[in-house]
Structures are given as C-alpha cells and as structure tokens.
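Take our chain:
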Amino acid sequence: MPVRAYLQSPRGLPGAIALFRIAADSERELDACLEQMGSRPVRAGQARLSTLHQGHQAVIARWTPTEAHVMPHGGIIVLKQVESIIKHAGADLLEHQPLLPDKDDPAPHLESALANAASPLAIDLLLDQPRRWSLSPRVDLTPAHASMLRHLLEPALVVAWGPPNVGKSTLLNALATRTLAITSPEPGTTRDHVGAMLDMGGLLIRYLDTPGVRDDPHPAEAQAIDIARSLAQTADLILWCRDASSPPPPLPRTSGIVLPVDLRSDLGTPQGPEGIRVSAFDPHSIRSLAAAIRQTLVPDAALADPGAWAFWRTTPRTHADRALPPYPSHSTHRSPPSTRGT
C-alpha cells in the first residue's frame, strides 16, 4: 500500500496547530515522503521543526520508523496548502471512514483493528466486540468511555513540561527502564526533544521529554522550548513537573489533561497543591506514576464498560471528550482557557 495520510484535526475549523498522521509500510517510504515534502531528515523518536515547500513550517514528530505526525499552523488556507504538499509527496490523503450504510457490524473491521492496535489492552476488548454487537437489546459504550478507549488504538501524546534540572530526563529513563535521555546537574542539558513509545501497564503512549522552561534560556534552548510549547498544545496529557526548589512554569494553552508531578520527592515536598510524588530512588513511586498515567487516559471504568464499541469510527474527539474524570488517588488539572505560556 502507498503512504497514507489523514487529518486528525477538525476539518474546516481554524486552530493554532493542525495534526496530520503519516503512515507507511516501510521506513524508506516514509523517508522519501518526508523528503518530498521538503523536510529535513527526522529519525524515529525525534521531533524537530522543519520548513516544508511553500515556506510552511511544521513540527514533525516521528514516533516509529513507519509513522510520523506533521503539525503545521492550523489556519484553513495553510491546511489546504499543506494537504496539497502531502499529496504531491506521494501520499494518499484519506478522509475519515464513513459509518456502515446498512447495519453496524464490527466483523469487517476486526482483523485490521487487531493488526494495528497499539496497546495490548485493546486485544481482549476487540475480540469480545462481535458478541457484544450480537446482543439484543444491544448496549452501547458511553460516549465518554468510547473516547477514552481510542487511546488503545492511537497512542496518546504525553508531554513532560517543567523547569530545568528537576529530573524530567531521569523520569523518562526510569519509566523506560533504560537510558534514553542525557542527565546532568547542569540546567539546560536537554536542548532537544527525546521521544519514546512507552508501555504504561498495557497502554502504549507517545512520551515526549522537553527542555526545561526558564526565563533566560540560551538561544538554542529558546527555539527548542518554542517547539515544546507547540507540542504541548496538542498533548492528550501534560505532566506538569516541579520539585521542592523549582515551581512549575506556566502552562501553554491546551485542551489536554494536566497531571501535577512532584519530582525528586526524596529532597522535599513542594508548596501548593499536592502532585504525584516521584523519586528516581523509589521504584514504587515510578510504578505509581505509570499507573496514574494509564488510569487518567484509560480508567478502569472504561475498560470494564460492557457496552458495544464502534472502534472503526474515526470521528475526531471534541474538547468535551477530553474532560476525563480525576484519577481516584491524585487530582488531575486542566489548563484554564486564559492560561498562556511565557
């Protein structure tokens, strides 16, 4: 199959950032497509700002060798021009799949969903769908739960946002159980983004470690922080990081869920509302954070809902869909509409 692309942002509505998903059958095909779009090379696990044809700038996050997100400005005219660039790069620009015309039936979609489901937690749910859809009377999933289960098929974007030198890179290494990010006592060590696909108790997420946000960054840091702010605006979940000596920076404007995280908790407790306490020296706290991330994005109530799930429908999520209930042990926070990053 050729390279596939589709717009994940609402069509016809302007926004600060738009989101195109690009998928290919091989690494070489995706490399060629991005090159034809005008992008500089982007490796798997890397996010960078590129200038496409016609001078359009876009953040390109390549999550795997065969999948990437292209995020240009969300203006309506810009979207049309970027769609044209994607088409001329050899990708098939797909529309959202229509609903079945006659009768809802998961069977024609099940094989593809099982093959492409990102998270192991999706498998048992998908295999049980033919039985659920055959029940009479049929009970459907609640809209809120159906929205949450989308994260089982399309990994949620989780962004770590916080000041420098509070342990964000150490946190990534601890969650990944291997070294992915360079750590140092010097502020500003992370001047680029480190991306990884992480398994949070059966839920696969796209995790992005970002540079520390501070008032007087080096010019190279400032550009990286601007890119990080753009990515955080599209995140499904932001880990709002701090420690006892460094308060969290202002949040960027976002419709995602915000989860406060108190890093280096062995060195003291920050003032203000309590977050999830994490220490790299306490494996239990790392496991507790991983559980909180999974529960926030896909809570147990959504997994246990016995309703029929129309998993093949790709209706874009709304802001209301993102209003997830709080995690039972720790509060989740949302950025108020007036919050702006600095």
Q: What stands out?
A: Residues 198 and 205 are 5 Å apart (CA to CA). The domain at 4-93 is CATH 3.30.1360.120 (Gyrase A; domain 2).
